[in-house]
């Protein structure tokens, strides 16, 4: 009930913030990248014109194309959330329904706010209910009566709740009836309706429980239900004796209906495989590679080792390259690696689970038969909860498509199976649409966006033109024209110059502006400020490298436990930091804080375990999530953990003091930041997302963490991912939440929205490039944004206490390019002067530009907002002004540019901004361009 209230508050607060924005003229600019696209959860295709469709991104909103994916237009940016679970479209009325909240149940599957409806192709959105459902898998709308809607809701991810199951409305969402409810931990993950008889519906129930330290993706509540009356009543049909699994081992289920009697189900069967008929002496089957000499083990491919780790549910803690690095460095022998892996997951090493299975029913679900004889290996591995969709050709019941890591196809009803995802198709598949008029035409949605094939997967078109990347971390170097670095969910670490702008010209040039540094799930990045070619970064669970970009060298550097010690626990996003006092000193957090004096060549622990200790589960927990070193003092550290502890050390790690007792308990420490303006000041952000707690937690201490003060103030309720203090103005703070970016001018006493031109997307990280005075924003759904903050840095109380203030306008050289183009087909270059001013109220002001003789060359009345305002002047003169200038100076020569406009002459001008009787002034100088 609490989370339902908070989501309602979030919905209404987003409307209020949008109407009262002090910084609406400060536009954020998206700087990509687009090439890796983002995770697709659903598509809605116009069957009469399949070049027109909507693509729903997990945390990037809904996008529309009417040119077969050549370009996409975001249509959900005005909605209070971008978190999608499903999309349904009535193509006759062009009405859209979006079920918010992804159902794939990963660590970044954000909660939604119910069902959103748009009757104007996405211009405006209305919430029509089920706000506490959090994750919605399917929406069926009666094509003959749009008021009749059936919704499948999976429910909360991290906690039990009541608003899950199947819901039906007959009045378009004004009222809802819960027609199917299993229990507080089981929701509906799929819904399929017979096209020839919409009274016949099938629903897939899934029992799952995610905690920060463990995921259980199966249970007795999982099963298949059928309705004969359009979702009004339901009956369990996956009963004992039906042929479909019905026990504690049943995981996620996907269903697809060919007709009211013929349907398929795909299931993540977590029951143990039967023991092989031929037994071996080793009850814990390990491949020969772990018994081989080290040099043989190192020759094994990462793919082979990772496949084995995936199969035994160990990819959450270990990766192939990590194991190889242990062996190559001589830290461990393959047999010792084997012992660690066994200890990490003994139960799963004893017996392998069945995994993915396909079942078919020919009698409306009364009986089921498995379509294949053997096991379907190398599809789900241990991530069955992340997949689970299956599609059938609407004209041929034997042609089916289903996805996991690869995309698979069967043309004989699931008896034989082939892979159809190719080299330009990203892994991890979530939806496949089959053209009812051309079965070889398929549209596939995966973790890398949209792919289209016209020959049943023999060849694919990749539609990666949207900036919908899911960033975890960002950083910048200190070059004059600086580079931006970022780590992405499932798409590695990338780098590019900050001046990137969206363009397809790279397809002609052959090189994309962003460069990949490494794969995996990209994590934090540090750059040596003496040599920006030296980069420290890595992938999930503490696998970090030192990269020498100039010499194309990469060295694994992560600290390792000694043979006799317990393995280190690394967070999914392991924190790493180069010391601001000495760039040879590198810090890294596991459950301990580690220090290297030689950039990762060797390590020493400088702390005890700074967490509450290990917690049994299949996800690493009890780990350090954030730490910070004071710029005032070498060895003054703050460290935060995923189990809610915060510690301080004032002596380089010799002694530690816990400083979190007076903070809310058991919350994820998403960020701890030592102030660069006051030695004793420290900021902290706590995050309750993994408890389905969406409240806002931000604090400051002025005494090294002895006491804490909340600076939440008027921030809207939303989980906080990052807090950042400005490099120049100690009162200027930035906060990134799961629903946007906010700024404070008074050290957290009040907050303002700071997301003009950026939708309500999760902000995971922010960083300032101090020389450029620009803020880089890493979003988890819309890639990267850049915005100048130089005016904000100057907004001290001296300025905000005034009624009106105008900032300096940079001088400019007049150029022959003004108003002209390099060719008859090019657009002319048209300069603009950015005139920024601050107003303390929403009032009309007049902007007047005069030359040295007092002749007004430009005037404009505008309604100013309370806050920063921008008026642009294009340096042009009207005919009336030209006549006045000629009368004053008969020798003056005026010559219009090719665009037909007359531009100002080189001179000094005065910019006056008037509000009533009050006026403020600044200069605008246009200088003569030197000719060769």
Tell me the overall shape: globular
The mean pLDDT is 93
Classify the secondary structure makeup into a structural class.
mainly beta
Helix fraction, binned, reads: under 10%
Describe the 3D structure:
This protein has 932 residues and is mainly beta. Helices cover 9% and strands 36% of the residues. It is built from 10 helices and 68 strands. Strands 60-68-67-62-63 form a 5-stranded mixed beta sheet, with no helix packed on it.
What key attributes describe this structure?
single chain, 932 residues, mainly beta, 5-stranded mixed β-sheet, 4-stranded antiparallel β-sheet, 10 helices, 36% strand
How would you summarize this macromolecular structure in one to three sentences?
The chain is mainly β and 932 residues long. It contains 10 helices and 68 strands.
Blueprint of the fold:
Elements lengths: L1 H18 L9 E2 L9 E6 L7 E5 L3 E5 L7 E2 L9 E7 L4 E6 L14 E4 L7 E2 L8 E6 L7 E5 L11 E5 L7 E4 L5 E8 L7 E7 L1 E2 L4 E2 L6 E5 L7 E2 L13 E8 L5 E10 L21 H6 L2 H10 L8 H9 L5 H11 L1 H5 L2 E9 L7 E2 L19 E3 L7 E4 L3 E4 L7 E2 L9 E7 L2 E9 L2 E5 L7 E3 L7 E6 L6 E6 L3 E6 L8 H4 L5 E4 L3 E6 L6 E6 L3 E6 L4 E4 L19 E3 L7 E4 L3 E4 L7 E2 L18 E6 L7 E5 L4 E4 L7 E2 L9 E7 L7 E6 L9 E5 L7 E2 L9 E6 L7 E5 L2 E5 L7 E2 L9 E7 L4 E6 L4 E5 L1 H5 L2 H4 L3 E3 L5 E2 L19 E7 L4 E7 L5 E8 L3 E7 L2 E2 L1 H10 L13 E2 L3 E9 L2 E10 L5
Parallel strand pairs: 60-68
Antiparallel strand pairs: 1-58, 2-3, 3-4, 4-5, 6-7, 7-8, 8-9, 10-11, 11-12, 12-13, 14-15, 15-18, 16-17, 18-19, 20-21, 21-22, 22-23, 24-25, 25-26, 26-27, 28-29, 29-30, 30-31, 32-33, 33-34, 34-35, 36-37, 37-38, 38-39, 40-41, 41-42, 42-43, 44-45, 45-46, 46-47, 48-49, 49-50, 50-51, 52-53, 53-54, ...
